[in-house]
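Here is an idea for our session: we take a single protein and study its fold together. To get us started, please write out a protein record for me. Start from the sequence, derive the backbone structure tokens from it, and show both lines together. Go ahead whenever you are ready, and we will take it from there:
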Amino acid sequence: MPSSARSAAREAEANPAFRVAARAGYVANGILHLLVGALVLAVGFGAAEDSDQTGAFRAVAALPLGAAALWALAAGLVALGGWHLLQAVAPRGLSGRKRIARIAAEAPQGIVFVVIGVISAAVALGARPRAEQTTEDISQSVLTLPIGGFVLGTAGLVVAGVGVGFAWMGVRRSFHDKVRMPDGAAGHALSALGAVGFVAKGIALGVVGVLVVIAAIRVEPDTAGGLDGAVSALMALPAGPFLAALVGLGFLAYGVFTVFRARFARLDV
């Protein structure tokens, strides 16, 4: 990246207003996970709901002032995405492998948050997307390519790997590096919430990745799915409702942790 562009990124990263927007983005992300957790819990108890981000956005849209809430979520998520993208390019003193690792860790997160924010805005404008159907359609398109099975399978392995990474962060509590934990009981409680939440999200992403790999191996795009498909796969297992409820509670824990992360996140690079 040209030095002028990197300097501009560093100036934006140091802007107090942008840092406030990034913290608001953590709140928006936490609220989104709380909504998803509630939907997953509802599915575990027998409700017929889409237990993913688009399902959460549609639930918000049905509320009074739902459109305004969706715009607020969209603004926060896009700001958080922008923050992660700046984190990929703004830091000083990184070169070679460390810079590549930083870009690989931060840039995909930034893109994902921006996309989810755009989806929230689209739902506010009246769209009613369904992530499960979109995932299946994309999988079908990829499988029509000459090496589509390899591409889709690789994508599934990447998603599963991200899930393992989330779970490992929860087990090791390495997320402490990104959060200034408060002292005393509050810090212990926040750490426990983060550990449970990271593990639960890791499990959900791991199942999503496995479903995508299975779709690639069997050449069955209908097998691929997002979070809603992962919850459905859990529900099909023995003690499925119990497992789905545990994942839902984990998402609730992650949501609470992320809301508090808005206060305690380390925004220095």
